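Side project, low priority. Logging it here so it doesn't get lost.
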Amino acid sequence: MRKLIFPILMLICFPSEISSQLSMSEIVEDKSEMADNYYGTFKHNGEKYTGEAIAYHDNGFVKTLRNFKDGKYHGLWTEWYANGNRKFQGDRYENKGQGLTRWWFENGQLKKQLTYTKDQRQGVQLYWYPNGNIKQIRYFIDDSASGPWSTFTENGEVLDEGNDDNLYYQPFFGKNLAPKGFEETSPSITADGKTVVFARYTDWVKKVPYIAHFRNNQWKKSQLPITDTLYNLAISPNGQNIVYKKYEVTSGGEVSKTYLVKKEGSSWGKSVEQTNLYNINAGYFQFTPDGTLFMFARKPKTGIYYANLQADGEYSKPIWLSDEVSFDGSVSFDVCVHPNKDKLIITQEYKRNRQGELGDIGFYYYQKIKGVWKRIQRLPLAYGWGANVTPDGNFMFVRNGNIQSISLNEVGIDW
């Protein structure tokens, strides 16, 4: 009998400390009494609730179990899928996330994990794919991304790498991204920075040409009516010419052709084939202000060429740019040449066993010194292509299926 006295006294003397368990349907969130900027006050029978609340799936399995104190989320919060696997688990302190917090896929595999301190992300944040492979690694200090980050493909290969402290690029078109299921590539911008041509695709060989105009402080995209499909394209600095490459099937098989289109008033004229660039796999073009056309081609050898505009309005046969830019064993393509033709940025790719000698693949910055092209440095960005420099001092490029942008100052080159 003496053993029962103390518990009974506890119930009599401290009734407010005893937690109850109610159905979530019995808890009412009073939005007229906001506990913070997000949650109201959670009440039962008009009083701030302290205790547990539970809800069930239709099959009888527990759906959620949450803890409250004085009308706020406080303590462990757990969610489950209808199959019984956990969906979410984390602690709350006066409504705010606190400590290790996790999310799961329905198959039981971890989906996301991070640590909160009063609702602010701290330390490493991890994402996984449903197959268990890591998807993203990122670091936070006081809810701000800081330090290196990495993303991976579903089969475990590195997809992207960067550093939130200084190299966190943004989509060039802001929220106006490619529609779901599509990607955008091959950007080219006019000298005034108000027109961009690019290609949108699901089929890498048969892309659809698009044009974007900057009007009323936003980018407006529309399909470019110069051809149904193409491989890639570029626009001249003055916005009056477009060059594009496409593959066509002839009696002798598939060939590559290059076409030039001139603007006629407010519309585009007829596509004129550039016969001197026939079937050399020319592409990844760029115009300079004087009309010179730079390009990547695979014939007679792989690398960067340029062609001059002739009196008849067509481009000359391609001229090799430099062994220093397109060196043996490399695929150097998608060049961006300075208007003065004394600097360039190019994407360079080569076999992994040469990276110790040549550096990681990616964007490289060159300067022309005493008539010779010199490789100066690698841009501190992950592998990409589509290099452009915008009039407002940003570097535009293609990465992860979208057109991206970052300040040249962040990249660390003198353009």
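Brief comment: The two ends are 89 Å apart (CA to CA).
Revisit when time allows.
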